[in-house]
Amino acid sequence: MTALLSFRNVWVEYGDKIVLERVGLDIDAGSFVSIVGPSGAGKSSFLRLVLGQEAPSRGEVLLDGQPMRAECGPDRGIVFQRYSVLPHLDARRNVLFGLECAGARVTGRLFGAARRRALEEVDAMLDAVGLLSAGGTYPAQMSGGMQQRLAIAQALITRPRILLLDEPFGALDPGIRKDMHALITRLWREYSLTVIMVTHDIGEAFALGTRVLTFDKRRHDPHAPHRYGATATYDIALERKTEVQGSDAE
Ligand SMILES: Nc1ncnc2c1ncn2[C@@H]1O[C@H](COP(=O)(O)OP(=O)(O)OP(=O)(O)O)[C@@H](O)[C@H]1O
Fold it and tell me: Measuring from atom 5 of ligand 1, which residue has the nearest CA?
């Protein structure tokens, strides 16, 4: 079976600074991959490769066995720790914006029947993340948890196959984080997503992932810290036996 994503001897270098080196791994469709590692180990750089925001300086990244083009496509969505949503748009228009970006590249706006259909989809997505009644609310009026629900809705509205999460729950209180764990688990299953999540929380990595990757440097040169890059040093397959329970879990 072809892996959804394959990394073949992938390097990321900025000038003479090596960030990632010799990354070789396959990611299967439907997996939930957690990535942990020290600050600066190239975890966000790895996500940018998957997003198509950046091309490897050496090696190749394959999507469905084909070389991935260095461009963001609607089949990949991303949620960051903060600032994923647009402050000047209410919740409904934030999610609609995600659709407009993907569906109407020329004008950037949807009109008439297409807009009505899109708004129905938007409301269904807001419902899926528990924000249907907050459709007219602006991000500044929302709690951190609500903003992250909105960011997830915005990322999922284009029905991506791959959802990238960069420390998505890092700024949230523990109770809210549990709710978000339950939500993301439900959406991962319902939407048959492949999730790649960077987190600094080891417990979260193991609670949510079907696989945990650690990124770190195998070699260090104390006189030239940029000489060696990080790679996937541990690759741990997990059996997810238990459901993640949050207060909003179905
Ligand atoms: N465009 C760039 N030009 C030069 N260096 C860069 C660039 N982007 C990232 N880096 C460097 O690459 C290294 C890895 O950054 P990256 O953000 O991928 O690490 P990370 O593991 O996600 O870190 P953190 O956990 O702190 O978010 C850092 O040293 C960073 O300064």
Answer: 14
Q: Indicate whether this model's pTM tops 0.80.
A: yes
Q: Whose CA is nearest to atom 1 of ligand 1?
A: 14
Nearest to 41 by CA among 224, 208, 231: 231
User: What is the position in ligand 1's atom list of the atom closest to the CA of 37?
Assistant: 21
- Two tokens, residue 77: 């969505």
Confidence at residue 93, expressed as pLDDT on a 0 to 100 scale: 93
Residue from 14, 54, 166 to probe ligand 1 pocket by mutation (most atoms less than 8 Å from CB)? 14
Which of these three, 113, 139, 159, is where a domain ends?
A: 159
> What is the ipTM score, two decimals?
0.94
- Angle between helical axes of 91-103 and 144-156 (0-180°, round to 10): 20
Ligand 1 centroid to residue 44 C-alpha, Å: 7
Q: How many domains does the chain have?
A: 2
Domain's final residue, options 138, 159, 180: 159
Domain region containing 237? 1-75+160-250
